[in-house]
User: Fold this.
Amino acid sequence: MHSYHIDHLQFLETEAIHVLREVTAEFERPAMLFSGGKDSICLLRLAEKAFRPSSIPMPFLNIDTGHHFPELNEFRDRRAKELGAKLIVRKVEDAIAQGIAVPAPGEVSRNRLQIPTLLAAIDEFQFDCSIGGARRDEEKARAKERFFSFRDGFGQWDPKNQRPEIWNLYNTRVNPGESMRAFPLSNWTEMDVWEYIRQERLEVPSIYFSHKRCCVRRHGQWLPVTELLPPKNGEKVEELVVRVRTIGDIISTGCVESPAATVDDILAEIAAARVTERGSRADDKSSEAAMEDRKKAGYF
Amino acid sequence: MEDQIEALERSADITGGGQINLANLTDGLRAEREQGITIDVAYRYFATPRRKFIIADTPGHIQYTRNMVTGASTANLSIVLVDARLGVIEQSRRHTCIASLLRIPHLVVAINKMDLVDWSEERFLEIRDQFEEFLPRLDMKDVKFIPISALDGDNVVTLSERMPWYHGPTLLDHLETVHIGSDRTLDGFRLPVQWVNRPANPADPELHDFRGFSGQIAGGIARVGKKVIVLPSRLCTTIKEIHTAQGAATEAFSPQSVTLVLEDDIDISRGDLIAGLNTPPGSSTELQANICWMHPRPLQPGRKYLLKHTTQTVQAIVTSIEHRLNFTDLEAESTPAELALNDIGEIRLKTSKPLHFDGYASNRLTGSFILIEQGTNATAGAGMLFAPKELVKPEYVDFAI
Assistant:
């Protein structure tokens, strides 16, 4: 006798596939944001399942800040090639050269500058919906996000005036110039993502697993020492056994000391964790409304 | 989590006079922290060894009823928090009523701040009686009353020694064990066609003729060999193949997302419905529904909207407003001139094309719709359909040859 029961991961999977198909059916020019990070790896797998035996009917878009971990870009390019997908990369440094993104005096981080770069790419290709791997459990402004997040002509999110989203009836209508962001992984937690990676045997970039890396202690975090982030006077460089839990720019991604060498190790580590995933992202800690402000400006 | 507590302490030191404010954990927007209120739903996630939970923390204030409806529409269970000092207030009635209209199968009335009423059983019973006065007028099957004090967690996770008179489960115990397996509809197969899957330039020559119909099963069970009817064409055929997220299967059920291949080559597009031949839905352009109005521009008879029902969007005109619900006494006012923002009422509609639907009471997915204002594209209302007056009659259908 069949029990007609689906488990939590199957529920999340079926929900995400429904959202992905809704995007394809309702929009003329959708795109999928693909960075090579763990969330977008799950997204890619879900898209394969949603559309097979057809291939994924939309291009991939990545905004390269120029401060990415090299392991991530290598992985991104290889996966796109394996799937025969069209990968569009737009670089922050090109946007700076063209005057689309203008750094503040002394601004080293490329975090804010990805926003105008992304908006320019959406405009260039006239994408009416971009799919992202953002999850509500990542951050408290994201906890307020809808599956289909409406953006006005400036790419802005208006959190006080979001469209009600009732049942699974998504209002996907936009006027010319406006666009939508869609988040099929809205209800996934960090744990769900890793359980899915285990279940589907998905390959992830090596930096998620334990490795040796030279780091400096800054603002309570272990930051990787690179050309972009040399040690300051008095800072001691230490070689540690670390992994990254969430991947942002190489200058703002904190490493966590960890011996986790397999997906099972990572799952055990998360289950016992006392700090959230985004606790290691300096870009989120700059103020209490850091994420909200970036999202209002057009960030994911 | 420690980094979240640390962030709360950081903001408490700066703006909160040193007191940490736990509401800031879910009030994720600047405007919410500024005003000390919840404006929109915040989703939170936790897991126990027994179950995984998604919490939708919804606003209580009447101004944000539409956001409460957003959070509640997909819930298995709702918790209405009542302040033991205040007892039942309009908000408690409104939220209980919305939970019942949306047919959330389980309700918990958590009577909080029991510490401030001396852990009094008498007060607890008094509030329960206040609820029992209006609950019979609502359609609620499973209601549980739990006295709690969130301050120290009495009856939240562990049983309170300060309320020995209470013999029921703790809140978490109840959440972990309440049976939700039979909340779904397993009779009446429904697949609203979401997307037609036709591989473009497939490398595999076998796929040249592949034509699949993708969607999320909104009710019942699909089986290879099962007879189905396609609406609106009313042609009948048989399910040939089922593809689920786990691969090819001989059966699939609600709420799985699937792709079906059918025996016969019939014209089927997005918005069509594939339904079980023995359990057909209704099909009509004249509809009756309860509606939650969510837009500042009121709903008036004669107004036109776009109506999205399952995967189909059609034009609709509101032909009449039958009732408006009054939350103070839960009585219905007859034929009001309009429904304003946050009003709930009963309306009649006419659509440009027939909807293939069930009553909301028997199927939440094929019995619900939204109204969209043309021009602004705002989601203006959430509707729950009455059961169809007549069902599609299979004897009139043609079999595909």
Remarks:
- Chain A has a mean pLDDT of 90.
